[in-house]
Inverse folding.
């Protein structure tokens, strides 16, 4: 067990996942998948399989999903994929912000480092592709929510800078997000380092991606995922859940090393813990 690190660098940037963290798209994906499973006479998602697939790009095309689902031989993987994609396209415009998301982003957008006084930079690192991103953010409230991230600081799953097959739990998307942040840093300022970034994630795959990128992580799991991994929470936070095998084990953390924590919702985020100072808004009537 590693000693818990105390002397972390100042947080200068916060990088967010989107699906299941900021908006309720993961619940919509589960709903659509269950409807299709029922059509083919198969049982709905179990909590365990859902927890394993959440946050992994194209997870319902994976061996893990199909070995579990045992769809009729008459239904090809491609046919299932196309049907599910069409079902989700119909439902994604119903995506809504999750509790605490807008308040957190609003506060971070005006926050400063308590020690340096520098502003906290924001970026998005989402596995969703551009076309589905547009559907998921079509409601005014979701569009407003994602508006906290400037377009040049939104890294999506089909970003040309991402290598094929290197989605989460690989660290690539978070490292590209950091590049986008540093491209906007004034020349007089030092580039933001990975250890100065705080990643917000809802999935075990996303936590591992953030840890592999050398960043600190706040894990906000879906309640079903939290229950499923309750006994292994410390392993997930250290990126040592054992669910993913992509090599580069030197990127993994150690149990209780202090680089990651889990909170029940975005409303429970502790700004002070990370040295983030949020100015109090003074109303015009004061």
């Amino acid at each position: 067990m590693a000693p818990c690190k105390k002397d972390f660098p100042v947080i200068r940037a916060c990088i967010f996942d989107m699906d299941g963290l900021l908006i309720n798209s993961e619940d919509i994906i589960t709903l659509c998948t269950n409807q299709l499973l029922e059509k083919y006479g198969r049982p709905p998602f179990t909590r365990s399989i859902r927890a394993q697939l959440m946050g992994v790009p194209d997870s319902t095309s994976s061996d893990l999903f199909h070995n579990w689902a045992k769809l009729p031989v008459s239904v090809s993987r491609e046919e299932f994929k196309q049907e599910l994609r069409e079902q989700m396209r119909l439902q994604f415009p119903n995506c809504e912000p999750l509790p605490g998301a807008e308040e957190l982003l609003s506060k971070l957008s005006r926050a400063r480092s308590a020690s340096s006084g520098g502003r906290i930079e924001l970026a998005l690192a989402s596995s969703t592709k551009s076309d589905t991103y547009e559907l998921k953010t079509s409601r005014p409230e979701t569009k407003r929510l994602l508006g906290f991230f400037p377009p040049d600081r939104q890294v999506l799953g089909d970003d040309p800078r991402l290598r094929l097959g290197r989605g989460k739990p690989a660290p690539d998307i978070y490292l590209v997000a950091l590049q986008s942040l540093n491209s906007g840093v004034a020349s007089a300022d030092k580039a933001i380092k990975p250890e100065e970034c705080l990643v917000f994630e809802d999935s075990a795959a996303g936590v591992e991606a953030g840890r592999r990128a050398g960043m600190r992580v706040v894990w906000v799991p879906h309640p079903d995922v939290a229950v499923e991994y309750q006994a292994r929470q410390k392993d997930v936070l250290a990126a040592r859940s054992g669910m993913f095998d992509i090599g580069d084990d030197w990127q993994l953390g150690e149990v209780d090393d202090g680089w990651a924590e889990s909170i029940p919702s975005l409303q429970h985020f502790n700004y002070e813990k990370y040295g983030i100072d949020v100015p109090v808004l003074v109303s015009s009537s004061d």
In short: The chain has two domains: 13-24+95-277, 26-93. The chain is about 35% helix and 10% strand. Residues 52 and 248 are 21 Å apart (CA to CA).
